[in-house]
């Protein structure tokens, strides 16, 4: 993260405040206890590719969408991106359609799993 002033003249990153100077709690992702590849079981997603995993269940909106889109920008054609969310990511689907990604979602015991890949 950058520690230089943003458009609002505030420094961002590292100090637990966002762009608007509001304090927030930095959290660690859940330890799901599952191998990330196991989230692909039962989904119509390529299983022979590497898996990039992101647990966004504790992130407040719009961070799950923002973080997912940032990670997808660096996704190569040989990797399936797997997002674990506490709800269906309805605002993500149109963005994936616009960018030509293939995806599928399924509700699981610990959240909604969405697999995203370059077809």
Automatic annotation (TrEMBL):
InterPro entries associated with the record: DUF2249, TusA-like_sf
Domain (DUF2249) ranges: 54-113
Stretches for region Disordered: 1-20
Protein name, UniProt field: DUF2249 domain-containing protein
Transmembrane segments: none
Pfam families: DUF2249 (PF10006)
């Amino acid at each position: 993260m950058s520690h230089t002033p943003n458009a609002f003249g505030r420094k961002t990153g590292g100090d637990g405040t966002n762009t608007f100077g509001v304090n927030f709690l930095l959290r660690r992702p859940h330890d799901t206890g599952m191998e990330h590849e196991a989230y692909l079981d039962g989904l119509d997603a390529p299983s022979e590719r590497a898996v990039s995993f992101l647990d966004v269940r504790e992130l407040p909106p719009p961070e799950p969408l923002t973080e997912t889109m940032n990670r997808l920008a660096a996704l190569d054609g040989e990797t399936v991106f797997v997002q674990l969310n506490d709800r269906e990511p309805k605002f993500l689907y149109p963005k994936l359609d616009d960018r030509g990604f293939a995806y599928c979602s399924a509700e699981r015991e610990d959240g909604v799993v969405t697999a995203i890949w370059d077809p």
